[in-house]
Each structure stands twice: as C-alpha cells, then as structure tokens.
Specification:
Elements: E1 15-22, H1 27-38, E2 43-49, E3 54-59, H2 65-74, E4 78-80, H3 85-115, H4 121-136, H5 138-149, H6 155-176, H7 184-208, H8 210-216, E5 222-225, E6 230-232, E7 241-244, E8 254-258, E9 261-264, E10 275-277, E11 282-283, E12 288-289, E13 294-298, H9 306-319, H10 325-352, H11 357-370, H12 374-378, H13 381-393, E14 396-398, H14 403-409, E15 412-415, H15 417-421, E16 427-432, H16 438-449, E17 470-476, E18 480-485, E19 488-493, E20 513-518, E21 525-530, H17 537-546, E22 550-554, H18 559-569, E23 573-575, H19 580-592, E24 597-601, H20 607-612, E25 615-619, H21 624-629, E26 632-634, H22 640-675, H23 681-700
Parallel strand pairs: 15-22, 15-24, 22-23, 24-25, 25-26
Antiparallel strand pairs: 1-3, 1-4, 2-3, 5-6, 5-7, 7-13, 8-11, 8-13, 9-10, 9-12, 14-26, 16-21, 17-18, 18-19, 19-20, 20-21
C-alpha cells in the first residue's frame, strides 16, 4: 500500500523542524543523534542523515527546540536551524583537505624512510608520525573519546585505537631500543588514507547536493515592482505585482495579469519544451521568461512557493531510509564492538600460539583498521542522496526512500485518462440544445461547474457568469453536480444523474465525453467535450513496456472514449465507466491477482486509488490531495517522466545493492587476511580508503543517468 514519506509527515498536528548538524564524522554519529532525539518526550519521529548533514524532527508543540539543540550538543555535535548546509559542507571539506594533504605528505615521507635509512631516521619518522597522529588525526581521538564516554562505539573508535596503538608501540620500541618492528609508517598511513577517504566522501556529498541547492537558488534575488520600486526577494509579498523582462526568471509563484510570452521550465521541473502563457495563466518561480514582457501578481512567497515545496520534498526523501538500509544499520550497530573483540582475540590467540610480540600487535592493528565500516555506512544514504537529486533535475520528486523498494517489484502501471494521458484542458466541441435555451443552459452549467474541481468542469469556464448566484451545490462522484443557480435547479453530469434523457440528445456519431444539462430530472441539452492527448503519451506507454511493465487504462469516462484513447496510445487493457471508489476496488482486484500496481493520476477522484496502490504517481497539474498521497510526483506533466522515475529508482536500488555487496565482501575477505597477519596496517588503511572510494564512485554514477526520452 502506498504511503507518504512517513506517517508523521501527513499528520498536520506534528510540527516539522529541520536542523543543520555539524561535527558528524560517520553514519554511526547520525544514528546516535537520531536515537537520542527519538527518545525525547513529544517527538513523533526523528531522522538524521549523515550524507546531507541534516536532521528532520516531527514533534508536538510542547517540545522545546532549544532542548533538542542542547541534547545534540551534549552528544558532541552542534545543531542549528539557521545554518547554511552548503557552507557547512564546504567548510568540512576544506578542513579535511587541510589535514589530509599534510598527512598524506607525511605518510609518503615515512614510507620512503623505511627504505632510505640515515642516522636518526627512526627519530625523524617518529616526529613526523607524532604530528600526523596527534594533529592530523586529532578529530578521530576527540570523536572516539565522546563515543566511548556515551557507550556508542563507531568508526572513529577503530581509527583512534589503531593509530594510537601503532604509535604507542613504536614509541616504546624506539625508546627501549629493542629489536622489534616499528609501525610509525603504518600509523601515518592510517591517518592519511582515512582522512583522504573522508575527504572524498565530503566532496561527493557536497557536490551531490549542488543540484538541489541550484534549484532552491534559481529565482532572482531582486524584483522590479510594477510601480517602479525594486525590492529584495524576501520583501516581496503576496498580491504585489512585478515585472518580468524578456530573458529574466520569474521571481516567485504568481498569476500573469498582463503580457504574453513563453516560459522555459527546463531548469526547475525538467519540462523539455517552452510553454505559452497569457493573462490569468499561473507561472512558477524560477522559470525563464522568453521574448515577451510579463506583469505577474505574486500568489506565494518564501517557503510557500513551488520550488520551496519541491526542495522540502527532496530533503524529506533524502532524510528517509530505504528498507534495505535496515540490514546495514543492524550490522553497523554491532560491528565495531565485534571488531574490537576480534582485535583483542587476535592479539591473545597469536600470543598463545607463540607469535612474536611485534607481529602480534601488527595483526591486531590491521584488524582494527581494515574493518572500519565507512563503506557500509555510506552504501545507502549517498546513493539515495545522488539518486533523488538527479530525479529532481528530471522533474520527478520522490516522496521517500521506501519508494525504491516499491519500484523494484512493480509490474503493472495503471493510468487515469484525463489530465494524465490527456492534456487536462477539455473544451466543448459540440452542443445539442434548443436554440432558444442554448445560451441560458450553458450559462447555468458554467456557473454551477465553477464550484467543481473535476477536470471536465474546466470545459464550462467560458460560459461562467460572475453575476450568477450558486447555492445548494452537491458533488455526486462519478455522476456529476447539482445545485441551484439564480433560484433555478440545475443538473450537469452523466446520464445516471437524470431520470429521463430524450433520444434526440444522444448522437453516437459525435466523438467526445457526453455531458447532459437540465433544470430538473429531464435532460434538456447534451454537451460533447474533447480533451486532446498529450503528444508524448504514446511514447510514455512504449517506454514503460520497454521496462517490462504491463499498462492498464482506468477511466470514469465512457467505454467509447476510453477505448479510443487506449487505441491511440497502444494500451490493450481498458477499464472504463468506473466511479472513484470503484477505481480503488479495481486496483485491489489487480493486487489480489498477484500484481504489484503503480497508479498514475491527478484528481481528487484518483486519490483513493493512489493511496491503495503499491506505488502512487501524481501529475503536477493535479490536485493537492493527489500530490500529497503519491509516492512520486511528476513535475513536468509529461507522462514519459513516469518511466524515468521508475527506471531511476530501480537503478538507485541496484547501486545500493552493489554498494552493500561490495562493503560486506570487502570485510569478509579483508578481516581473515588481517587476523592471519597477511595484511599490514598500511595495506589495511589503503584497502579501507579504496573501499569507501569505490562506494562513493559507484553512487556518483547516478548523476549520469539520462532521461529515457532525451535526445
């Protein structure tokens, strides 16, 4: 069954607070913060994402945000609501670079001096190792101290124990002048390669968030009002009218009040073609204006804009955890204590077997270092970060990481017709009505339909009379609407809404959806409505078939209209003339047959089906109810993006699986080698860094995902 990103996400009573978290060094840090926040009284749910350096907390009004920040601080981290994530990530990357580069130079020098000896070379190596371990590696020791104090061991604990053990052993051997192997070069290599790996990670996480930040920052910082004033974007208020010159971006969501032009939304929603806008058309903030000049009235500003909403949805998805990550979390929770026990066991067993003390310490240190679970911790969150960011660039908004598992098993895609495969811009093509009552009936119908949210109601907009008085409006799902217009009873809808429909109003030779009008139980006129197919609908169905998906058309329209649309887009299975609740029943029937179903819709009447489907997909042109229920939202209104969303989600899941297989396989091979003494600490550090590098590189491949219909 499709759900939102989280149950608390849909709970209007829960407040949503986002923190920027500074000081996290691995996913274990994120898990520790998340667990502590979740245990606070009044907190409904908490998610902390190491890859995005953020936390999302849903809580009651009674929860003090200062208390949450203080709790995070007590764990050794800093939480802020007004921090700039990009700046924090850039600062973290710069700090790691400042430590990693000198540490790498020291490690190279220490390795060279292993083979080029000179008087006091051991003491020079010792001095370099001291700088590396205690300065470059200080962050590991500080973090390990906090982890041990809180009884939560993590990667930094292993690195700290490994480097301090290697350094301390070497200092004792050097001072005592015993003839045993020094491990200064091993300690420097550990610090250097772990820092280098973390630098790679930080850089990957920062660049992976660039697309989302670019989306949020795409709107101009200043706006020119119609009255000649120039304001900063933060000063703009709803109702203000501003000018959008040719070639400029629209400052915020609004309604065009004057001017005609074309707008390019390719950088905000991925829409591949420019869209013509005229007075009364709605435009989203950030879209690029064409050759015409526009005057736009702001309808939303700040956090209420479409771009801000999209950014929040993507951040929520990135903060979530895919079900497959639960396995990794369970392993990571017990992995470090097990590794420490293995290191101690290796030390004890090898001593009992009579191995030389230096070799024994070497093996124990290698066990600590080679087992750092960096790759395991990054396997899922980094892939989700990159995948959801790339999806947003393509105009597909993923509601949560749980969607990845849903797309994997979906085998059937069910499409609504109006507004999904068709443009959702219905027009009246033919009218059968007595000449003396034609205008009156259309005017009454237009006024009554102005209260309806059904897509077909838009066809009656040209006949709307602003002076008309409408009362007693009732929506009859799947049948039509009734009400009183200027004290006259009025019915607009399907044949089932009337007790009698004269035969002269029925003409099977006229194509389109038939809607009857009447001022009572007898229909007086018939209106035929046509809604053009989207030009890309047939290509969308073809792309879905290429993904081995069965496609079904599910429509409340007449059998004739539904069959005609299905024939045009090459859909074989058609279910027509269904009520909204029957759509849900048909989805359940398909599921009962063993099919895993994705539902694509856009209207309130599609909401029950979207909710019950295994994967709900809503078109951006649809209602808020449909978008809020869906797992995927298609921002382009191009049905081909449905295939993009499913294909990219599947690829993201495949990348996660490869990452996890590599992380587990790496440890399965490397640990025995370290335990048996076949892997030196330096080699262990290199292997661990390369493991993280491979996971990062594999995840970044998702940035190169191309739309299935791109040229």
């Amino acid at each position: 069954m499709a759900v939102g990103a989280s149950a608390v996400n849909q709970d209007s009573a829960a407040e949503r607070t986002q923190f920027i978290i500074e000081g996290m060094t691995c996913t274990a840090c994120a898990a520790r913060i998340e667990s502590s926040l979740a245990q606070l009284s009044g907190v409904r749910d908490a998610r902390v994402n190491f890859a995005t350096a953020t936390s999302l907390v849903w809580h009651d009004e009674s929860v003090d945000r200062a208390t949450m920040r203080a709790l995070v601080a007590s764990l050794g981290f800093r939480a802020s609501e007004d921090g700039n994530r990009a700046e924090i990530q850039a600062a973290t990357e710069a700090t790691l670079a400042r430590r990693a580069i000198p540490a790498l130079c020291i490690a190279v020098a220490a390795l060279v001096m292993m083979f080029v000896e000179f008087p006091s070379s051991d003491w020079v190596t010792a001095a370099l190792a001291t700088i590396s371990v205690w300065w470059a590696g200080w962050t590991f020791h500080h973090s390990a101290r906090l982890q041990i104090r809180q009884g939560s061991l993590a990667m930094d604990t292993l690195v700290s124990l490994g480097t301090l053990t290697a350094w301390s052993w070497s200092v004792i051997v050097l001072v005592s002048r015993t003839d045993r192997t020094l491990h200064f070069e091993g300690a420097t290599a550990i610090v250097a390669f772990v820092l280098l790996g973390k630098w790679w990670e930080a850089r990957a996480m920062r660049t992976s968030g660039d697309s989302l930040r670019a989306l949020a920052d795409i709107a101009p910082s200043t706006v020119h009002l119609r009255d000649g004033r120039e304001l900063h974007i933060e000063e703009l208020q709803v109702g203000m009218q501003f000018i959008v010159a040719p070639g400029e971006r629209v400052a915020t969501d609004g309604r065009v009040v004057d001017g005609t032009s074309e707008v390019d939304a390719s950088q905000t929603t991925g829409e591949s073609t420019a869209v013509e806008v005229t007075p009364d058309a709605m435009v989203a903030g950030g879209v690029l204006n064409g050759a015409g000049s526009l005057v736009v009235e702001a309808t939303a500003v700040g956090e209420d804009t479409e771009i801000a909403r999209v950014a929040r949805l993507v951040e929520d998805a990135q903060a979530g955890k895919a079900p497959i990550q639960r396995l990794a979390d369970r392993v990571a929770a017990t992995f470090v204590p097990i590794v420490i026990a293995l290191a101690v066991g290796t030390l004890g067993v090898r001593l009992l077997l009579g191995h030389e003390l230096g070799d024994t310490f070497t093996a124990a240190i290698a066990v600590l270092i080679v087992s750092c679970p960096c790759a395991l911790g990054l396997a899922t969150p980094l892939a989700v970060l990159v995948g959801t960011g790339r999806a947003a660039q393509l105009g597909v908004i993923v509601a949560g990481a749980h969607v990845l598992d849903s797309t994997r098993v979906v085998d059937t895609v069910v499409f609504d017709k109006t507004g999904t495969l068709t443009k959702g811009q219905p027009t009246v093509s033919e009218v059968i009505a007595p000449d003396n009552n034609r205008s009156l009936l259309l005017s009454l119908a237009g006024s009554l339909e102005s209260r309806s949210e059904h897509p077909l109601a838009r066809a009656f907009a040209p006949f709307y009379d602003e002076a008309a008085s409408v009362s007693s409006f009732v929506n009859h799902p799947g049948e039509g609407v009734t009400g009183t217009v200027d004290e006259q009873e009025m019915r607009v809808g399907k044949r089932a809404l009337f007790e009698h429909v004269p035969s002269n109003l029925i003409d099977p030779t006229i194509s389109g959806t038939t809607i009857f009008l009447g001022r009572g139980p007898t229909a007086e006129a018939a209106v035929f409505i046509r809604d053009e197919l989207r030009p890309t609908s047939a290509a969308a169905i073809s792309a879905l078939r290429d993904l081995d998906l069965e496609v079904v058309l599910l429509s409340g329209d007449s059998r004739e209209v539904a069959d005609a649309v299905a024939q045009d887009v090459c859909i074989d299975k058609v279910i027509a003339e269904v009520l909204p609740e029957e759509k849900r029943d048909h989805i359940q029937a398909l599921q009962a047959e063993g099919q895993c179903v994705a539902m694509v819709g856009d209207g309130i009447n599609d909401t029950p089906a979207l909710a019950i489907a295994d994967l709900g997909i809503a078109m951006q042109s649809g209602t808020d109810a449909a978008r809020n229920t869906a797992d995927l939202t298609i921002m382009t209104n191009d049905p081909r993006a449905v295939a993009d969303g499913i294909a990219l989600s599947r690829k993201t899941l495949r990348v996660i699986k490869v990452n996890l297989v590599w992380a587990f396989s790496y440890n399965a091979v490397a640990l025995p080698l370290a335990i048996t003494g076949s892997l030196a600490p330096t080699q262990a550090a290199i292997a661990m860094a390369l493991s993280s590098f491979l996971v990062v590189t594999n995840s970044l491949r998702l940035r190169r995902f191309r739309s299935l219909y791109s040229n």
